[in-house]
């Protein structure tokens, strides 16, 4: 994990903090706050205590990027498409498109309930094998844990389902993915039969390329309880799609299930993708999930020969993210936003959902920050990205902020001072008031991590 070199950075909190002796309670601490966007900070040479922390975090990030570059990965220009993305987002807001999860999930029209449950529901995906007849150069599965092992040996999904049943989890959404699940249709049908028998009201979905799907197998899947099927369409920068590429989707639309496409969007494929949107709309498909195109730490020469580069910086928050997609490719986010705008302008009935890499990370943050109870009046959970957040000021900024906070929170319940770091932390509900002062307010993003000694809070960075 990048950042483990810094002793201060790995400081852990059990949810308690030193603060002045309470005099009287004036404010009730907020446990959740409206989304506070995060931006990587610039150094603060005029504020040494703050600058020390900023330099620590930026150095860790720089070491991470250098490590990736030393493995041959090429990065784009810093913030290359950020301005263009902001402009498209503003137009999308004016057109009534829905923004979710702190702008990481953006939707025109309807969205699958499974996508909503990804951050906030009892949802889980399973696979029995990572074998697949396709050979997509960008396949994320190469970055899965034990990828080679699951090519040869099956994963015991039956035992995994049984463990969830025994634990009494009220699952609302379950999925079967791969590899290609339809390489063994009997196994796929068995999954849905067992899931439906144990969770009668759950939403059940299948991920497939469509390889091996027949009308008979589709009938069996529906009879077994499948509610939704998501097809991937193999697309490259020079692909010319034909009606045959939509045969599986056309057949699926005849059945009482939600038929969707889910696929990463390569830069430079706007024309092919608009053709896909129009065809899906004409077929009556439920929707399409546009995924940010990613480099999964495998097969970089294939990316390089197409002129692709990794987005720079690849993430706002650096962490050991579990999603196999790993690194976003520069320009994919802008292409996805343009496709959303196209769908809105054309008035497509098709639901179009942009699920960014950041949205995949939102799922992990949500799960980690709900693994155990946490209570500290200085912290509140951001309702957009699900980090536990607190605001901080350092050095010369501490005194004026402390005077203000003492005037509005005399009990000292929502703030605390750390003399070692010369830092004052306070609940984000007070942020707007503090920003009226000529001080630099940093946002601290945190997650709960399970250590041998227990679940503790870990700061991942300071952000403007």
Automatic annotation (TrEMBL):
What is the protein's species of origin? Slackia heliotrinireducens (strain ATCC 29202 / DSM 20476 / NCTC 11029 / RHS 1)
Note whether Iron occurs among the keywords: yes
Q: What GO molecular-function term can you cite, just one?
A: lyase activity
- UniProtKB keywords: Iron, Iron-sulfur, Lyase, Metal-binding, Pyruvate, S-adenosyl-L-methionine
Name the domain of life. Bacteria
A Pfam family that the UniProt record links to this protein: Radical_SAM
Query: Taking every annotated instance into account, which residue ranges of this chain make up the domain Radical SAM core?
Result: 130-234
The protein here is known as Pyruvate formate-lyase activating-like enzyme
Basic residues compositional bias: what residue ranges? 1-14
- Statement: the UniProt record of this protein carries the keyword Endoplasmic reticulum: no
Q: Do you know which InterPro entries this protein is assigned to?
A: Aldolase_TIM, rSAM, rSAM_sf
Comp. bias (Polar residues): 15-31
Membrane-crossing segments per the record: none
Q: Where is this region: Disordered?
A: 1-44
């Amino acid at each position: 994990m990048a950042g483990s070199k810094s002793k201060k950075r790995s400081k852990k909190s059990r949810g308690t903090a030193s603060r002045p002796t309470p005099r009287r309670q004036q404010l009730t601490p907020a446990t959740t706050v409206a989304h506070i966007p995060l931006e990587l900070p610039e150094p603060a040479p005029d504020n040494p205590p703050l600058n020390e922390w900023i330099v620590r975090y930026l150095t860790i990030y720089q070491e991470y990027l250098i490590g990736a570059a030393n493995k041959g990965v090429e990065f784009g220009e810093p913030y290359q498409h950020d301005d263009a993305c902001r402009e498209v987002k503003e137009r999308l807001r004016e057109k009534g498109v829905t923004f979710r999860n702190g702008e990481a999930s953006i939707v025109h029209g309807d969205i699958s309930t499974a996508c909503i449950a990804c951050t906030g529901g009892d949802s889980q995906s399973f696979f029995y094998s990572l074998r697949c007849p396709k050979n997509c150069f960008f396949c994320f599965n190469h970055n899965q844990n034990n990828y080679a092992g699951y090519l040869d040996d099956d994963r015991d999904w039956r035992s995994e389902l049984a463990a969830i049943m025994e634990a009494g989890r009220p699952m609302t959404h379950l999925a079967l993915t791969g590899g290609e699940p339809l390489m063994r249709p009997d196994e796929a049908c068995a999954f849905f039969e067992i899931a439906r028998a144990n969770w009668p009201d759950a939403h059940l979905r299948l991920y497939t390329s469509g390889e091996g799907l027949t009308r008979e197998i589709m009938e069996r899947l529906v009879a077994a309880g499948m509610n939704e099927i998501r097809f991937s369409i193999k697309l490259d920068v020079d692909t010319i799609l034909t009606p045959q590429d939509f045969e599986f989707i056309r057949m699926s639309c005849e059945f009482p299930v939600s038929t969707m496409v889910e696929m990463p969007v390569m830069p430079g494929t706007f024309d092919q993708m608009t053709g896909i949107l129009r065809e899906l709309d004409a077929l009556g498909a439920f929707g399409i999930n546009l995924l940010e195109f990613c480099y999964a730490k495998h097969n970089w020469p294939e990316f390089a020969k197409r002129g692709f580069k990794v987005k720079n910086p690849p993430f706002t928050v650096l962490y050991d993210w579990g999603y196999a997609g790993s690194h976003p490719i520069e320009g994919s986010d802008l292409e996805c936003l343009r496709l959303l705008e196209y769908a809105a302008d054309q008035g497509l009935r098709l639901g179009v959902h942009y699920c960014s890499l950041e949205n995949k990370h939102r799922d992990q943050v949500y799960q980690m920050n709900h693994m155990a109870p946490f209570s500290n009046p200085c912290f509140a959970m951001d309702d957009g990205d699900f980090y536990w957040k607190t605001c901080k000021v350092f050095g010369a900024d501490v005194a004026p902020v402390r005077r203000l906070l003492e005037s509005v929170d005399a009990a000292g319940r929502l703030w605390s001072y750390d003399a070692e770091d010369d830092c004052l932390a306070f609940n984000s509900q007070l942020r707007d008031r503090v920003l009226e002062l000529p001080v630099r307010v940093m946002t601290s993003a945190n997650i709960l991590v399970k250590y041998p000694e227990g679940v503790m809070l870990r700061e991942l960075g300071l952000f403007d």
